[in-house]
User: Fold Beta-glucosidase from Ferrimicrobium acidiphilum DSM 19497.
Amino acid sequence: MSNLDAITFPIDFVWGVATASYQIEGAANEGGRGVSIWDTFAHTPGKVLHGDTGDIACDHYHHLAEDVALMQQLNISSYRFSLAWPRIQPDGKGPLNNEGIQFYIELLDRLEKANISPFPTLYHWDLPQTLGDQGGWTQRDTAYRFADYVEMVVDALGSRVQRWITLNEPWCSSWLGYATGQHAPGETDLAAALSANHHLLLAHGLAVDVIRRDTDAQVGITLNLAHVTPASEHELDIQAARLVEGNANRMFLDPIFKAAYPTDMLNLYGDSVAHIRRDDLAIISRPIDFLGVNYYHPSIVGSRERLHEHAAMGYHVDNTKAPTLLETTSNAIHLRRPGIPRSLMGWEIEPKTFTDLLIKVREGYGEIPIYITENGMSNADYARQDATVVDPERIEYLNGHIRAVHDAISAGVDIKGYYVWSLLDNFEWALGYSQRFGLIYVDYPTARRTPKSSYFWYRDLITSRAVR
Ligand code: GBH
Assistant:
């Protein structure tokens, strides 16, 4: 391709990388940190692949200076990370743990010196176990405990932060945590997932109020939005796809931006939504400054009643996705198409679906500024004899998806920034260390970091603001 094909991003477009506390920090028993539901889950045999845990992870807790230096050399303007609630408030209530907050103050200081703007997420799945013991997100009280925690954090760190993210992917917390059981706390109960879904949204709204009251900072939420295509034009497939899309997207976007849950979903769930109080929707829908979007892969959904027809089209049932209870209720099933490239996660790679999704969000919910808070690809990377790590597949994936973001901007979507998932290879939840998403390779036994080819590629892209 010639230079004529290069497309250029605005000068103030934010380029970053993203991580999350439990996935990188390690030091699980240091600095007065309390236990989280992910410590408990990972230490329960059979829950995480190979019995992996986040006890040590990337040992980021002891590599702060090195990791910030790696960010600075990468030339990023912003770093998205999450705060571990059990480091800051070990029991999920009570006073602030000074040693815990000190760790994040040191991080913020180092970022400031490196001229990297912090983009903290207040909750990326590591709920204090004491709150888990009381029912976790199925309990309304947990939302109020979250608001108290946010108040303490904002009091301690507020002067150094201009943009806050309340929650990361509440769909995963509620549906993977309480319906499929693939994530902590590992429950499989539709009613529990629905109440978790609602209380997470309430927690978000209460946190927005606290941040507005105590700071001038911007605030938003990060959602994992799905791009869902029906397996065929058949009415049953269309219906199944609509429900999966409703569960993933509209159950979050509608309450936040329209102060109402979608009626088709409420009808589907029936009596299980009794815990929703009308007044809550006013809190959940408090205006926010931006929407964070995490996007990885498209989804193809059909009705279980049409398995034979799908097979005849060359589609396979996607076994990486455990059927949620929603899918059991609605007969929806995830499928894979033939001839579409996939990542090591098994996720289909199709960048133009990213553009379509972003345009749809704008059409459905208006001109809200958007940050792409995660996008990236896992691979089975390895260090070669000469100690380099070469990952052309990741470069191709990122290139295609960053182009897709540019296409969405050209179509009028207000996109402010893009964060690669992830800075480092890290603990990929139920899949442990088997999936590598980093721009930087981590040799877990030694914690040695090696930038991959994609790291240097991203650095050059940030410098030139141009993508081919
Ligand atoms: C994100 O979650 C997390 O924020 C991050 O911690 C994690 O490491 C990263 O992505 C990589 O996995 O088609 O209905 O079965 C993962 C987002 C959302 C991706 C749900 C898989 C499957 C939905 N996930 N999606 S479905």
User: Anything to note?
Assistant: The mean pLDDT is 96. DSSP finds 17 helices and 16 strands in the chain. The domain at 3-297+338-467 is CATH 3.20.20.80 (TIM Barrel).
